[in-house]
């Protein structure tokens, strides 16, 4: 298990991280989401030892992570971290060797991962001559060639076409299935929702929510979708009920504590036939907006 415990970091007067705490379990895909400047990259750099925390610690396998432990991390930065004029194969083999992989094993690993990610035919090309999408694939290969025990990926899906996204998600899921903890940041919340076992939301340097999407829904507001009556006037006057949206026959209402969904149903039926009555299951994009707004208000 990778544990981030009470990490805080300041840059002058700027509080970049404020007591950030979460874990990434073995075999888990953990989505780390937040706006630009929220603290995602700073957290990842502290995990890697690029930055030093002012308080808190990072633990791996139950002990504070050291230099040897960090050698077992596969890292993919958001910015391109490759040598542009170096050939793909030579570069990947070199990076594997830096992690202590023997030469023959490094060459085999480079071949295996470039084939898996669809760039085996570009081994003799300079990185700068590749498309941005293929450079991203090389970047992921660089994070994988030394057979890491942890994967830390900063915006790994940026610039990828849908086919490449599917290839990369398959690779990440396969690595997680071998017991590797995988943490990645992304602004593509629909992808995070589909792929991740759990999600951590950071805002203003503070963790404002951690859990499965289902758990985040449980902690959110209670909303009901009603399809049937032609407008939302039927909901007026219902105690504890607020109309969130109304589009023709589709009305979404929000229930405060103590409000009854049965009262909502009876009022809708009194106004006309009800074709659908269901609890709204908000996507991660909506949950994210609600959680961040609530966190900012507090």
What is this entry, summarized?
Helix content is 35%, strand content 28%.
Structural write-up:
- Pfam families: ABC_tran, DrrA1-3_C.
- Keywords: ATP-binding, Nucleotide-binding, Transport.
- It comes from Pseudonocardia acidicola.
- Residues 2-229 form the ABC transporter domain.
- Belongs to the ABC transporter superfamily.
- The chain is built from 10 helices and 14 strands.
- The protein is of the alpha/beta class and 298 residues long.
- It has a 6-stranded mixed β-sheet with strand order 6-7-8-3-9-10, sandwiched between helices. Strands 2-1-4-5 form a 4-stranded antiparallel β-sheet, with helices on one face. Strands 12-13-11-14 form a 4-stranded antiparallel β-sheet, with helices on one face.
- It is elongated.
- α3 crosses α4 and α4 (103-116) packs across α5.
- The two termini are 31 Å apart.
- Helices cover 35% and strands 28% of the residues.
- A hairpin with a 2-residue loop joins β4 (55-60) and β5.
- The protein folds into 2 domains: 2-216, 3-Layer(aba) Sandwich (Rossmann fold), CATH 3.40.50.300; 221-281, 2-Layer Sandwich (Alpha-Beta Plaits).
For CATH, the homologous superfamily of the largest domain is named as P-loop containing nucleotide triphosphate hydrolases
Poorly predicted residue ranges: none
**For this structure, what is the CATH class of the largest domain?**
Alpha Beta
> How many β-strands, per DSSP?
14
Which range does the strand content fall in? 25-35%
Shape verdict: elongated
* Number of H- or I-type helical stretches: 10
Give the termini separation.
Answer: 31 Å
Protein name: ABC transporter ATP-binding protein
Domain ABC transporter: 2-229
Keywords: ATP-binding, Nucleotide-binding, Transport
Family: Belongs to the ABC transporter superfamily.
């Amino acid at each position: 298990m990778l544990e981030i415990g009470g990490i805080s970091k300041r840059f002058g007067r700027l509080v970049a991280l404020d007591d950030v705490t979460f874990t990434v379990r073995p075999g888990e895909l953990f989505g780390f989401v937040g706006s630009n400047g929220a603290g995602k990259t700073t957290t990842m750099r502290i995990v890697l030892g690029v930055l030093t925390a002012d308080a808190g610690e990072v633990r791996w396998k139950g002990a504070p992570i050291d230099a040897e432990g960090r050698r077992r991390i596969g890292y993919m930065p958001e910015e391109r971290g490759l040598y542009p004029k170096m050939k793909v194969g030579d570069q990947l083999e070199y990076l594997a060797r830096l992690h202590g992989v023997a030469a023959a094993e490094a060459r085999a690993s480079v071949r295996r991962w470039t084939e898996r990610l669809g760039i085996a035919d570009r081994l003799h090309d300079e990185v700068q001559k590749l498309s941005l999408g293929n450079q991203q694939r090389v970047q992921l290969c660089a994070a994988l060639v030394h057979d890491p025990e942890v994967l830390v990926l900063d915006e790994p899906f940026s610039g990828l076409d849908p086919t490449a996204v599917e290839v990369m998600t398959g690779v990440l899921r396969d690595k997680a299935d071998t017991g590797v903890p995988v943490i990645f940041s992304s602004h593509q919340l629909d992808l995070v929702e589909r792929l991740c076992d759990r999600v951590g939301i950071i805002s203003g340097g503070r963790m404002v929510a951690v859990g499965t999407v289902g758990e985040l829904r449980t902690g959110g507001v209670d909303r009901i979708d009603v399809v049937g009556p032609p407008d939302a006037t039927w909901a007026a006057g219902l105690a504890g009920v607020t109309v969130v949206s109304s589009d023709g026959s589709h009305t979404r209402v929000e229930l405060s504590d103590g409000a009854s969904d049965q009262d909502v149903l009876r009022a809708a039926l009194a106004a006309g036939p009800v074709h659908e009555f269901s609890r709204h299951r908000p996507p991660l994009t909506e949950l994210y907006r609600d959680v961040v707004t609530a966190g900012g208000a507090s």
